Structure formats: structure tokens, C-alpha cells
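> forwarded from #structure-qc
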């Protein structure tokens, strides 16, 4: 399976991605996690990405695309993957199409978690207390939501037009949401 999970910041993508990836035996690839690992190791990529992340802005497409292309060329992603946090711009959609097309495959589905924006701010502030992520302050959270609305929300229409969209209600308990996602995906994988 070649899957994407989308949704606004705080929708629970990372949490659900882990369950979906396990179910389908594919790696969950989170661009946010890869960037954060690079920031904490002080790599050149991390140094390049950090100021954008701290401000709640997107890392430039060129940097992100290169990183994803490298990651998808690793052996474990050959038979499938679940992308969490990519693509996030229309330009990244085109780039990903190229990467998947080059390997002679196609996308199977794009899961979108729908959530209430106010509830999300609360979730993220809560997460800030637990994980201490640098970009989980209220101002930066609001900026990430704006950037999502401007740059990433339009991708939903793009994938809907391709008949790839699987919209799932992301509100409620984690295991309820997981059950909804897996049910929706199972019905696709049997087609
Ligand atoms: P969230 O979904 O909670 O905002 P992520 O962990 O997915 O957080 O991403 C954290 C940050 O990493 C983003 O705010 C952005 O700066 C950067 N980032 C992650 N993925 C991308 C991407 N595809 N394009 C550009 N920037 C990205």
C-alpha cells in the first residue's frame, strides 16, 4: 500500500500513522519527525530547517522534496509506505507523483482526518506540556493552522478529484479513530 495521511496540525496524524503502518506492514514516514531528528543532531539539514519550523512556517519545498526522495529510495519503502506530513503544498504533490511514477507504482489512498480547530489548539497546548516541542506555543500553533489552511487544505480537492480521498472523523478517543480509519482503508484494499 502507498498511502498518505493528512489533516491539520494536532489532528492525530502521527498517532494514527503508527497503527495504519503496522496493519499494512509499511514504514510510517513522518517529515516532521525526520526534520526534528536532524535538528536535534545538528545536521546541515536540521540547521536549514530549524528557523522555519520554529516559526510555524513550511520548510522550503526544495529541501523537503530532496529529503523525501532520499527516504523513499531506501529499501524498506520499496513495497509501500505511509507518508505523514508530506505532501503539504501543490508543488510537493507534483514532486511525489514523479517519485512514485518513477518507481512504476501509484498511490492507493489519501486519508484525511477531520477535526474541530478549537479542540486542536487545546490538544497541542496539552502536548506542549508533555513533549515540550518548540513549535507548540499558542502563537506558533495558530500560524501553523493558517499555513495549513492556505497551503495544504487545497490538496484535499486535488486528491478528491483523483478519487483517492478517504475522509475520516478524527474526533473522539484514539482507538475509535483508529477503528474508523482501518475500516475505511480495508474496504479500499479489497477493491
Ligand atoms: P504538525 O502536523 O503538528 O504541524 P509536523 O511534525 O508534521 O507537525 O511538522 C512540523 C514542522 O516541520 C512543520 O511545521 C514544518 O515546518 C516542517 N515540515 C514537516 N513536513 C513538511 C513539509 N512536507 N513541507 C514543509 N515543511 C514541513
Amino acid at each position: 500500500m502507498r498511502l498518505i495521511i493528512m489533516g491539520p496540525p494536532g489532528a492525530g496524524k502521527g498517532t494514527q500513522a503508527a497503527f495504519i503502518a503496522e496493519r499494512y506492514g509499511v514504514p510510517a514516514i513522518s517529515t516532521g519527525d525526520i526534520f526534528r531528528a536532524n535538528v536535534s543532531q545538528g545536521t546541515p539539514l536540521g540547521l536549514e530547517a530549524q528557523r522555519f519550523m520554529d516559526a510555524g512556517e513550511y520548510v522550503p519545498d526544495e529541501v523537503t522534496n530532496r529529503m523525501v526522495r532520499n527516504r523513499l529510495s531506501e529499501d524498506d519503502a520499496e513495497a509501500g509506505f505511509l507518508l505523514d506530513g508530506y505532501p503539504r503544498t501543490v508543488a510537493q504533490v507534483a514532486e511525489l507523483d514523479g517519485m512514485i511514477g518513477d518507481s512504476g507504482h501509484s498511490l492507493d489512498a489519501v486519508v484525511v482526518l477531520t477535526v474541530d480547530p478549537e479542540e486542536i489548539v487545546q490538544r497541542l497546548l496539552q502536548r506542549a506540556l508533555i513533549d515540550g516541542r518548540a513549535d507548540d506555543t499558542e502563537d506558533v500553533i495558530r500560524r501553523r493552522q493558517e499555513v495549513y489552511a492556505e497551503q495544504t487544505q487545497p490538496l484535499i480537492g486535488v486528491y478528491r478529484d483523483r478519487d483517492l480521498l478517504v475522509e475520516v472523523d478524527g474526533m473522539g478517543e484514539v482507538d475509535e479513530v483508529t477503528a474508523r480509519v482501518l475500516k475505511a482503508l480495508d474496504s479500499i484494499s479489497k477493491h
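QC bot note: Residues 9-10, 31-32, 35, 52-53, 56-59, 64, 85-86, 88, 92, 135, 144 surround adenosine-5'-diphosphate (CB under 6 Å). The chain has nine helices and five strands.
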